[in-house]
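User: Hi! I'm working on a homework problem where we have to compare a predicted structure to a textbook description. Could you give me the structure for the chain below?
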Amino acid sequence: MNEEAIYCIGCGAKVQTENSEEKGYTPASALEKGIESGQVYCQRCFRLRHYNQLEKVESSDDEFLAMLNSIGDEDALVVNVVDIFDMYGSMIPGLHRFVGNNSVLLVGNKVDVLPRSAKKVRIQNWMLQQSHQVGLRPIEALLVSGKNGDFIEELLQSIEKHRKGRSVYVVGVTNVGKSTVMNQIIKVATGNNEDIITTSRFPGTTLDQIKIPLDDGSFIVDTPGIIHEHQMAHVLSAKDLNLVSPQKEIKPITFQLNPEQTLFLGGLARFDFLSGERSSFTCYFANELKIHRTKLEKADDFYTKHVGSLLQPPTLDEVGEFPKLVRKEFNLKEASDVVFSGLGWIAVHHPAKIAAWIPEGVDVVIRKPII
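Assistant: Happy to help. Predicted structure tokens:
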């Protein structure tokens, strides 16, 4: 084996052939073939790429935070990728402290699944507002699709405009599609149409920094995803995550509700119309997520009886005990979007008193309508 360190081009982990339980493991025979082909993948990335099998490898938050800390010591541009369906769960706690004086470019992923009627400028403004609330002051907010490559060229133009010869660090929490966006950047920048970085819908795919050299001697650096405990993804099985993560353009569903009626979003969340005039409520969620209507007075018993069966997801035999739903009440004075982090939103078109229920630790926020 070559004594010089070799790194997996899929996740960035240092390749080793000794311990199959540790990150970066690959059999010696596979390593030799990888060296010959010029594409070395660890066994974990190989299985994920070819068989969609994800083997969990322990890697601590401390390691990730140490990497973030090092960014503040450099003169660089920071590109922060977030999930526009989960802004709260997408924000890296304390990122403004880690980046130091470096500029931050905010990139919202998954624009391809938004309804075409969504106003992108409103979404960008909302992203900036959410960032300001946690102390982050991005220089710009952009929307892209890591899946389809939409607006990647615009992102590259913005990166080139703001980096001014410096290296670029791409950061984000797990499960926002950061590595998918990186693959699109590489394709556009190099003309290479093959995915290089390992991607999946499972949290925590990139295990170490992956550096892509630029012509001027600087780098675009893909960093590991920081684990944010308040993501919906962390309370779901892989099967359920596929159901609630929109894979194509959302088709809204409108319900005419009377006061004291309830909508269940599968068994993951709940929306109560407490008081106000009979009105329409438009739901923007993954097309596969089933929505059930019932009377408010029967809602508690309905949930207890049907969660995990009629109200799926969650699939209880896969996730075990599901977190209890926590109630948050809002008195909406004007048309608003009620955003369920990691799921989608309900557009309330008229003043109303409502209650939103979400798994403990996950957030629900109110914003101005984007449609």
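For your comparison, note the following. The longest strand covers residues 76-83. Residues 52-59, 195-207 have pLDDT under 50 and may be disordered. Good luck with the assignment!
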